[in-house]
Amino acid sequence: xxxxxxxxxxxxxxxxxxxxxxxxxxxxxxxxxxxxxxxxxxxxxxxxxxxxxxxxxxxxxxxxxxxxxxxxxxxxxxxxxxxxxxxxxxxxxxxxxxxxxxxxxxxxxxxxxxxxxxxxxxxxxxxxxxxxxxxxxxxxxxxxxxxxxxxxxxxxxxxxxxxxxxxxxxxxxxxxxxxxxxxxxxxxxxxxxxxxxxxxxxxxxxxxxxxxxxxxxxxxxxxxxxxxxxxxxxxxxxxxxxxxxxxxxxxxxxxxxxxxxxxxxxxxxxxxxxxxxxxxxxxxxxxxxxxxxxxxxxxxxxxxxxxxxxxxxxxxxxxxxxxxxxxxxxxxxxxxxxxxxxxxxxxxxxxxxxxxxxxxx
Length: 361
Description:
Layout: H1 35-47, E1 54-58, H2 64-75, E2 81-85, H3 94-99, H4 116-119, E3 124-128, H5 135-147, E4 149-151, E5 158-160, E6 164-169, H6 173-178, H7 184-190, E7 193-197, H8 204-221, E8 228-229, H9 231-239, H10 245-259, E9 264-265, H11 284-297, H12 303-318, H13 323-330, H14 334-343, H15 346-360
Helix pairs in contact: 8-10, 12-13, 13-14
């Protein structure tokens, strides 16, 4: 199955449209190279030609709108792609924005106006941050999806609409529906095809491709030759946790090109947040990674069990055999700590130590 030209596969340089120099780069291309990303791309290719509603979930900056645009381009629908940020619409005007209104329907409605649903007829309507819609409006949206028609405010006549609905949220809508903050029936209507966009920290194979893509794109904007990314700079990008995901990576590369006047981008040109969980070459996590790789070269018969026992044993000893402190250190509950201690016979040993200490007091 062929893919449209908004997919850039590393190391292919992206083909920029003539008007893209002034527009946002992430609205033109997706770069999926990591095995997990490639699997997601295959899913998008399968579901795009259908009319099924797709609910895209992912952290801010992971490219939810870009994926929605890809689905539209692969759908074969002749109508437009329209994106609406539900979180940016005022609650007072939300119904009018989505469904339209007649002249004189309310104060300020001086003329007839079609809403987003009618404007997207024959195409795709992308409802971003849909979890921010008020509950009352969620009920009206559900009716439109069920009936396939809208009624403008101030009108008694409905109009048929044919718009493929894609939605996105950076919150868990399933959890929100269980908490009563989002209509469960609407969630099921929107969630026919769930798509989860992994954060960039879980897609390490995409980092080099994305960096190369942004270097090429912004170099063209700046009318300069694209500099090379030094290996140590690329390794720094791979170790970084990327709390802002792809959007943050784009900004980091853009800024590095403004700093780098030569033909290379070095570590010194990268502006990264110091408290964002970057794993430096001498950090504890880096040393653990090295130790794990040595274990992988000569694994025992129960490698995971051995590592788990060592972790809980050392953490418990570090916390002076205090279960509450051990739980806080590891970021787990005390019940889980007790379960692990029992599993490896450490709880009995700890009880004996505590009894000995009590006798000495």
